Structures are given as C-alpha cells and as structure tokens.
Amino acid sequence: MFDTNNIKIAVIGLGYVGLPLAVEFGKQHSVIGFDINASRIASLQAGTDHTLEVNEEELSQATHLSYSSDIQELRDCNFFIVTVPTPIDDHKQPDLTPLIKASEAIGGLLKSDDIVIYESTVYPGATEEVCIPVLEKVSGLTFNQDFYAGYSPERINPGDKEHRVTNILKVTAGSTPQVADFVDEVYNLIITAGTHKAPSIKVAEAAKVIENTQRDVNIALINELAVIFNKMNIDTEAVLTAAGTKWNFLPFRPGLVGGHCIGVDPYYLTHKAQAIGYNPEIILAGRRLNDSMGEYVVTQLVKTMIKKRIQVEGARVLILGLSFKENCPDVRNTKVIDIVHELEEYNIEVDVYDPWIDSSEAEREYNITPVKTPSANHYDGIILAVAHSEFVDMGIDEIRNFGKDSHVLYDLKYVFNKDKTDIRL
C-alpha cells in the first residue's frame, strides 16, 4: 500500500523548520513547499532564504522542489508534512490556530491512503485530539481507514550550521504499526544520523515537549544561582567553570530564555497537565524565574549606574542584539524586548543595534526601529545582550567606545573577561 518510490511530498510551512526539510527531500523526490506568505514564496523562487537557514547553493540543489502559496497545487500530493508554528497567546496558553488552519487546508485535499505528518511542537495528545478530528470533518474520510497520520518532532536549531536536519537523529511515529514503519522509512531517505521509532504518536509528542522543558528548568536553576552569587559578590562564571571540572556537571549558563522553543514549549506541557488535573510546580516555577530575568538585568544595570553617579532618568542605553540567540535573525519571542520595556519604565532612552535582524520585522513585531550604526561616546549604559560574532569581533575597546567617558557595560553573555566589564550575569 505504501511505497517510497511513489510519494509526492508537500511541506506546509516554509520557516526555519519546513524549508530545510523541503530542500533535503527535494534533492531526490518530488516536493511542493507551501506557505501562505506569497512574498516568502517569491523570495524562495528567486533563490533567497531570509531566515539564512539554507543558502543559495543548497536551494539550487533541490531540483525536485517547487514552491506555491496556492493550496490547490498540493492536490496530487499524498504525504503531507506540517511544520507551522505553535506559539502561545498573551495568557501563555497554547495557540493551535496555525495547526488547525493547516489541518483544515489539508483536509480539503485528502484522498485514500494519504498520510499527514505533524512536526510542530504540541502537548501529548494534540495530534489525535485536535488535528485528526479536523482532518476527518473537512475531508469526510475516516482516520486509520481512509487516511493515516504520523508525528516526527522537529529538532532544528536556528543559526546552527553544524547540527542540520540531516545529521540530527529524528524521532518518528505513526498511527498504525504499518504507517509507523513507512514514516520511519521515508525520513530515513534523508536523515543520515538515523531515526528512533517511538511506540506511539503521544510518546513522540511527549518526547519533544520535554526536550525543551528540561533545558528551561536547568537554565532557570542556573539563573537563580546567578542571582544568589551576585548577592554574595561571587563571580557566577568562575563558579560554573570550577563546578564544570566534575565529569557529570551539566554545562548550562545563565541568561535570557526566549525564542520559539525553550521559552514556549513548557507551556504546552503545563497546559495539558492542568487540563488533566495536575498543577506542575517545578516547570512553572522555572518559567516564572526565566521570564523575570529581563527585569533583574535592568535592576542590576540601574543600581550600577547609581553607584557610578550616572543620572538614570533620561539616560541613554544601547542594547547590542535583539534576536533570541546569537548569529540568527529570528526575533520571535525574544526576551531582549523585556529589557527594552523595563528600561523605558525608568524613562531611559533605548537604542537597539543588531546587524542580523530585519529592521522591518522589529518594527512590525515590537515597534522598535533599530539604529543602523551606534554613535560613539553617546551612551550611559551598554548591554551586550546577544553574542553575535560581529560583537565578539568588535572587541571590548570598540564596544566601550560607544559609551560616554563614564558608562556601565553589562555583559550578559560572558563574551569578555570579568575585569573588562562592569557587570556580568
């Protein structure tokens, strides 16, 4: 019934996850990459990926890949892979709207023996409890009789040029044993690192959501330790370096926890836990602590400015970096914005400089217009918020040159030695 030689793949959602996947499959199989953003499709057709995950050469190698913003062009496809975002809303509740809309679109195309794979991060049970009913309702077909489903959680790390989609081990799962085998076989066509076939879709969903939850809780612990050590006037990095000499000490570092994964995924798990009557204490405590770090950073900066007799109200502060991580243009759910808003509470004028991001996206998402080049001798405070390679290459002297004769430099990312900065997290 299922044959890899006859698959026609559709990848729905061409962001950081979907595009690299479509490109790899498109090197050897017929693939249509679909996105509702027509301008995104136009730029990909022109050979440009604004996310910088796939370069022009890699795009050109995907000779069997075409792009479309017309869902009807996917009608002949029989293997649908959904890679749309799964964000949270203003109340930190899962927003499954993109997933539901994608399922509705696919439901209008489903035929006998088609398979729909979800890669978007969700809570355990979401695929079968939310997505499948939508597919059945729109298509009029019966699940596991007329069409089938699978789950293979994405493990893309934006900006990482070493860990790519093909060399990261892939978890797979299917709605029946036969479908599970086939889904695993399909992914093995491109995943050189191999696959792990989970016993059920729910297990695969749970495995994905705890990957980032585990990291979130661990970072929260280190952030709390940093706060404690700062109160004791102990250098946090020196402590972590010393503790790291033990073979099984985990090498986490304090910092802002944003982005579309670590800062979001735990809320999917806690939402489901609360829905079944359990209140997750450790996970939510870690989330609260990590979400409070922007306020803590500004408090530390203001205290240091006061100690140096720098006028706080009306001061100018330069923030270096707005993306949620280094060497990446992604500004989704960046926690640097928390620092911006907190500084504004003190009536401090804030400039943001980030050579990686799209300025129009910063304006659209956060109403921020980044400066093109920071002025020299202009700022009362400088916060090195993101460790872009450009900032590392600048060196301490060039960064210090942005500040006035008396200013405060806060190095959030341990880019420079302690004795070269005024504050480190």
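That was protein one. Protein two is written in the same sequence-then-structure order:
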Amino acid sequence: MTVVVVGSVNVDVVSEVERLPAPGETVLALRSRTNLGGKGSNQAVAAARAGGRVEFVARVGADADPGLWKSLLEYGIGLTAVREVPDSRTGTAYITVAGGENQIVVDPGANFGWESESGLDGLTVEAGLLETAQVVVAQLEIPVRVVDWISTRARRFILNAAPAMRLSEDLLRRCDPLIVNESELAAVSGSVPETPEKAFAQVRALCLRGVPSVVATLGAAGSVWAQSVAGSPVIGAYQPAPHVDTVDSTGAGDAFVGALATALAEGAELGGAVAFATAAGALAVQSPGTHASYPTGDRIAAALAAVPRSSPLTS
C-alpha cells in the first residue's frame, strides 16, 4: 500500500455568492450544490488522482448516503476501513464561496465518533493498513487522541495540522512533514509570519525543537519548507507558486497535501515533493469544487514547467 489517509468525511453544502457576507448580513446565493468533502476524503482523492495507491480510514454516520461516500471507489480508493458510527450523523460542512475566497463552518458529527481510547487497540484492520503504508496522512478534523494513535503506528507520518490548534511536543516530533498554513503555523509557533523569510525562521525553529520536517503554505505566495537531518544543519527553501487565475480555492490545500503525500510515497525528496504539490494546488484553484478539480499525475507533471524554481533559505 502506498498512501493511507485517515480523516474526515463530510457532506459539503456549497453556496456561491457575489461577495462574502459581513457579520450579521444575509446574502442570496447565485447557486448551490451538495457534494462529498471533508479534509480526509479530499486528500485521499487528491493523492489517488496524483497517482498514489490509496486506502482511506474514516467514520461516517448512520444517515450516510452510501452512494455519496462510496463514490471514492471511482478513484480506486480502498474503503475497507470506513466504518459507520451508530446514532451519529455524517459530518457536514457549510461553505460559502465568492471570488475565489471561501468561508467554512464544519459540524464534525461522526468524524468525532471514533472508538474509545481502549477500543483503538482493537482496530486490527486499521492498524494493519497503517503499519504497511509507505506514508500515512492525517488531519485534525478527527480527535487528536486518534491522530496520536495513528502517528505511533506509521512508518512515515504526515500531519496536516488543520484546523489550527496547539499540539503536544511528542506528536509534533513524529510529523515528517508537519504541513501548516499561515494561521496553523501561528498556532504551533506563536505568531503569523509576515514574509517567506519569517515563515522559514519559524519552520526552522520547529525543526530545531525536534520536528523532522515542516512545510508551511503561504497561499498565492507559495510555500517554505525545512528539514532536519541528524548531524547536519537544518536545510530548507522557499518555493514560489505560479501566477494563475483563481476560480475557487476550496480544498486547494488538500490538493497540495494529497499530491505531496503521493510524491513522498514514491520516493521523492521533500523539495521535489513540494514543487509537485505546488503544481497540483495551482491547477486545483483554476476549477470550481474539490474532487473534480484535483489534477491527475500526468497533468501535474506537465504543469511543473510553470512552477518557479525554489530558492534555498538559511537563517
């Protein structure tokens, strides 16, 4: 197995509007749609579309429409460890989109209905998948205690620390890499970076604290990464993003994470994986929606020519 993604499944209720509402304001939608989402399912699809062999581990509610979440089978994703949580609703995300920007409110539902602490050790199917995968990916739309359990069983563990929250030092030290955006970086390091150079200083500091590697995405500005190698100084770089016309940024971060996971599982170095993921994210924002906008591995490879070269950074 190449990539195991453990995470959330949501029903996304998406409304497109001319502009995002101000606090207390009501606006009328131009159109609305309902589709499968959640950072977990998004990243599983992104990894599979990018060329990875993917298994998905998740929890859905008793109300789940099997036709909706089993649509993941169309991407070749294994679903043997997707389990139904009795007396629980499937997670729901309410998304408002305008001019390429979005606002999102998530009701986690069954995504927080995982087994008790003692019950996790009885999950032999899940444990088997985690222990044999080249790469295991998780996010924080499931309980942190589950993420911690996952991280101790993975050969290589990637954590997309979203939504933003403080994490234990033990968990951070298992992340290779830890992937954060600007607000999530602030949650784990203490301040929002104002420039790529300042972001690099923060991710380097995390490596010096014991995190094996860190990738910080900076929106249209690109990303920075840093990596700690035993006995050597921390290395890293700034990876600019290509200039594109953004149609819908919803789920673009998940496109980045999924593509990066596939590249790492296939043996890429971190810098090359970040460039590959940058191309995937740039393609994803040029189309509406999430799963349908995620590019194939061939399209990502072709788009790499438009990705600017990275610049090594030191502090």
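The chain has a mean pLDDT of 92. Keep this in mind for the problem set.
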